[in-house]
Every structure is written in C-alpha cells, then in structure tokens.
Amino acid sequence: MRTLIGLVYVLCAAAVAASASAAPAYDHQLCYKIKTDKAFEAAQVNLDALRSEYGLQGCTLKPKAKHVCLPVRKSIVELSGGRPLAIAGGEASQTICYTVRCPAEELPPATFSDQFGSHQLSKFKPSLLCAPAIAGVPPSSSTTTTTLSATTTTVQAPTTTLCGQPETCNGVDDDCDTEVDEDLGTVTCGVGACFRSVSACTDGEPTVCQPGSPAAESCNNADDDCDGAVDENVTQSCASDCGPGTATCSAGIFGECVGRAPQEETCNGVDDDCDTEVDEDLGTVTCGVGACFRSVSACTDGEPTVCQPGSPAAESCNNADDDCDGAVDENVTQSCEGECGTGIATCSGGIFGECVCN
Hints:
mainly beta; 4-stranded antiparallel β-sheet; 358 residues
C-alpha cells in the first residue's frame, strides 16, 4: 500500500513523489461506508510500513469491513484558498478497509503533500487497514489460517486480544463486543414538561440535549411552564355562599370556592352574612303617637326606610288619641239632661260619664 494508515479522506488523494503522466491516472480512491457480514471471526496482524518508523505490531482487526475504496480520477472544478500541486501516482487499487486497533505507540510527525497541497501531520492513531480487493469471488477460497506474504500481512487466530478498552462515543467498537457506542447512558435537560432524556451518543458524537418548549400553566398536576413548580397560580372563577369567589388548583384539582368573608348584615341589598337572605333581621323604625303611630321595616330595597306617621283627626270618645297629641279622649264632652236640667257629660276611657248640670 502506498498510503499511511490514518491518511483517509472521503476522497483519498495519492501522496507520492512528483512524476509526469500523459493522461490522468485513476490514482485516487473514493471510499464508501458499507454494511457487510463478518469476514472472519478474529484476526491479529503485524504491519511493516514502507517507512519503517510507522510499522506496528500486535494489531487487531474488527471482523466487519467499514469501507470499500474504488479507484477514481478527479478533475478540480473549483479550489479556494489552496494551490494544486503537480503530484501524480500510479493506478490505485481497489481496497476494503477494516477498523484496526494497535498498541499505543507515539509515532513521529511528518510532512506529506498531495494534489491539494502540503500537510503537517501529527498525533497518528491507527484507524483503518485497507486490504487489496477484487470484484467477485476468487477461483478458490479458504476460511483457514492464511499467510499473505506478498503484502507482509499475516492473518491468524490470536492467542491474546487487545480488546476490552472502555467504550467511548467515537463511532468505534472500543470494547470489541460487535456493538458501537453502546451503554453510554443518556443525557437529560429541562424540567417539568420540558424534560428530555436522549442517548448520550449519536453517530459517534456526544448528543446535545434540547429541552422542550414551555406552555401556559394549567390545572393538570404538571409543570407546563417548566419553572420547577406544578399548577402554580392557576385559578378559576366560581360562585361561593358569599357570592363570586375563586378556586385555586392544587395537584391537578381545583379546590373549594373561596369568596369574601361573612359580615354583619346591613341595609345595602347584599347578603352580607351569607345566609342566602338579603337585608334580613334589621328590625323596624317607628314614628308618630296615638292614632298616628306607624312601625315599618327598617330597610326597603336596600335603603333605610323613612317612617311616615299617620294624619291626626278630631278627638272623639273612643279611648284613643285621635288627634295624635299623646292624650286620650281629652276635652271630649257632650250635652246631656240630668235631674237639674241640661248638663254636660265628659268622656273618659272611651265612655261618657255622669251628666253634670251647668
């Protein structure tokens, strides 16, 4: 292979010494992510690099291929902020790429150039091992242990494994259990109706949790407006024994209707004491004396009653105060005939007395 592990573009450009070419060669590889079945059960490989300082030993391969890379050639339609370099490579081969994990080893930085420019490379981390591939099925194949001396890649059943690294959110099966980014838990955000719980990892990247949108608070035992309180300040109008009132919500239920407090009944057209009667038991008002005396309800249609006494009349002998002056039958007399002739009889207690001669 003529590229280092880790130099993987979606479009892989050749990185070799400059050479002249009469026609553009298929010297690039276009790599596709793929889904496939297992190519083998387990594999451990030693890798000798064209530049020996980048060779690695004791690497393990994941049994499912991740990419297939096919030879292509390109023509640059537009390139901003760069300057194409006159670098050409030979015809690229078809490859199938597997996830590779190798023992931690610090590799030296390097400068490489491709047709897009020069690159300062550092922090090398083995990622993919791309094996030569052909279309279709070869004339004969075997599932037994195989040594491919032409590429110095040895495939054999390993006696030890470098798997078992803690799983992290990186799109890789770190713990080698054929699952990727599993069991990384969830992240949560928001409170009340805005609460959300999502997987901590999505497509190899930590998930950013987005809380829901708050709504107006209602009487439902829920935190609709996402402020950490439930059913707060939710009321409704109602009719109480003392007239219009307010019911307050608690735990999803409106409570007792609360109106104004009962008060002493007054003459105002209102049921002040909240006994369903209006202006009751306010007594009476009186006026006048004798036949002019009057007693009326103290309140009429929500207003204090003005008492109007009766009209006085001429006093008569009836044991009543007809002229409303506080005296009864006063000065009431009549002519009479007695033993001595004509006399006067005076009224008392509604009866004319003995005839008294003049």
